[in-house]
Design goal:
By secondary structure, the protein is α/β, with parallel strands linked by helices. It has 2 domains: about 1-210, Alpha-Beta Complex (Spore Coat Polysaccharide Biosynthesis Protein SpsA, Chain A), CATH 3.90.550.10; about 210-300, no CATH class. It is about 50% helix and about 15% strand. The chain contains 12 helices and 10 strands. The chain has helices at about 15-25, 40-50, 70-80, 100-105, 130-140, 145, 165-170, 180-190, 210-230, 240-250, 250-270, 275-300, and strands spanning about 1-10, 30-35, 55-60, 85, 90, 110-115, 115, 160, 195-200, 205. Helix 9 packs parallel to helix 12 (about 275-300) and helix 10 packs across helix 12. It is globular, with a radius of gyration of 20 Å.
Length: about 300
């Protein structure tokens, strides 16, 4: 019936696993829960190790850090039931019918995405406001909106896929670090005509990061995006389309000049107690322009 696979990196996944076990047992379905730890700190391994003694759970610690794509591939290939449900380790299940909502949609010959949401209340730490605000505005989308562009809105934190389809369509392990490996994966599914359908069955994203860490990860993600687009591996995203508009209007240099003028204010806003999601997107656009310009320059030099 169902294999639930969870990549772990510095997270206590016990509450998530026990909730999933309870729901699966209540439905009386055949299931397994695979938890692969990708070289977390020892304190998290000590906590999660108790899962190794639970029925239906396979808890395994990796001997090296595999990264976001490789760990998912290992999990998916280790799954042995007909359907594989991928969940991130920093997720929380809030619906009592979370598993039931997925099971009742079977059989399904494609990918089903449940979505994600964020806590309605602001985080206690003001250092986490930017991530929370961005997540609430750009990621907590109802299925109706996500289905308008199902591949662009695909996220690997909460999706179910037939085991046979996954084995033929693994994540690209050449994409390392943080960012956009899920977009590349969705694009490859689209090229093969594999349907992606979004439903309202979200998990709560609890791994809200400090602004410093959030910006660091998005800086790396923007580098990945520029390289993937430069290598013609993905179609334009919202960020890329913003760049293309500036380019078509001959305004890239103007944008960079204006950004340089207000850069200090933008940086101050992002780490403030009232960060702007709009300015965060401006910040990402600037980084994308820097990266794509560098890649294009290197290409011209090689010629």
């Amino acid at each position: 019936m169902l294999s639930i696979v969870i990549p772990i990196y510095n997270q206590d996944v016990r509450p998530l696993v026990y909730t999933l076990m309870k729901q699966c047992n209540k439905l009386d379905i055949m299931y397994q829960i695979l938890c692969f730890d990708d070289c977390s700190d020892q304190k998290y391994r000590d906590l999660n190790n108790e899962l190794a003694h639970k029925i239906h759970v396979n808890y395994t610690e990796m001997t090296e850090n595999l990264g976001r794509s490789r760990i998912r591939n290992w999990l998916g290939k280790a799954a042995y039931y007909d359907y594989v449900l991928f969940l991130d380790g920093d997720s929380a299940v809030k619906s009592r019918d979370f598993i039931k909502n997925y099971v009742k949609l079977l059989p399904f010959d494609g990918v089903i995405c449940g979505g994600r949401d964020y806590a309605p209340g602001k985080p206690r730490s003001k250092k986490k406001l930017l991530h929370w605000k961005y997540g609430r505005k750009r990621e907590s989308l109802p299925a109706k909106k996500r289905n308008k562009d199902p591949w662009l809105n695909f996220h690997s934190n909460n999706f179910m896929i037939p085991e046979k389809i996954f084995r033929e369509n693994l994540f690209d392990e050449k994409v390392t670090g943080y960012g956009y490996e899920d977009l590349l994966y969705a694009h490859r599914l689209a090229e093969k005509g594999i349907r992606i359908w979004h439903t309202d069955n979200p998990v709560r994203h609890e791994g809200i990061e400090s602004t410093t860490e959030f910006l660091k990860k998005n800086r790396h993600a923007t580098e990945n995006l520029a390289k993937l687009y430069h290598d013609k591996k993905i179609p334009p995203t919202r960020l890329i389309n913003s760049y293309l508009k500036l380019k078509n209007w001959g305004m890239v240099m103007w944008f960079e000049k204006m950004y340089g003028k207000y850069e200090q204010r933008i940086n101050q806003n992002l780490v403030s107690e009232n960060p702007s999601v709009t300015l965060f997107n401006v910040w990402k656009l600037h980084l994308f322009i820097e990266n794509i310009t560098k890649l294009n320059s290197n290409k011209n030099v090689k010629k």
